[in-house]
Amino acid sequence: MFRISRRLDYGLHLLHTLAHQPGGKLTPTAILSKELDIPLPFLHQIAHSLMQAGYIHAVPGPRGGLRLNINPDELSILEIVNVLEGDIQLSPYTDQDEDSSHEAKKATVLIWNTLQNEITDKLRNTPLSALNSAE
User: Fold this and answer.
1) N or C: where does the chain have the smaller number of CB atoms within 10 Å of the terminal CB?
2) Domains of the chain with bracketed CATH
């Protein structure tokens, strides 16, 4: 089964919410956890990965919280996927397998590689700000 992980889905929810905070306002993680229905420890794990990538800024303490650290027009969904999940890899084969003499293997390698390229291109050309149009 093809499936988007909760980690990735929650990460997109978090970034989308932070992108809508006026003036880059800090939002406490406890509020984000409750508002987005993400368990707080999981939200912290996701936020840590996004912070390491430079996409969000975290300020500790009672007046702290999270805020987006990058223009949502300049952050692609593919970049977020790569940080939270790693590279997209649909095919169990390598590009060298396209040269296989086994016709069935060549056919499946071709379809998986084509699909992977289409998905990757779509995500690369979709900025975080495009999620706004889904509302």
Assistant:
1) N
2) 6-134 (1.10.10.10)
Q: Which residue has the tokens 């003036």?
A: 23
Q: Which of 52, 50, 53, 11 is nearest to 32 (CA)?
A: 11
Say if residues 83 and 51 touch (Cβ distance below 8 Å).
Answer: no
| Cβ atoms of residues 74 and 127 within 8 Å | yes
Mean pLDDT, 10 residues at a time, the chain of 135 residues: 87 96 90 96 97 95 92 96 91 62 76 90 96 63
The first and second tokens of residue 124, run together, are 């690369």
Determine the residue type at 74: E
What pTM was computed for the model? 0.86
On whether the CB atoms of residues 119 and 62 are closer than 8 A, the answer is no
Q: d(Cα 30, Cα 35) in Å, to the nearest integer?
A: 9
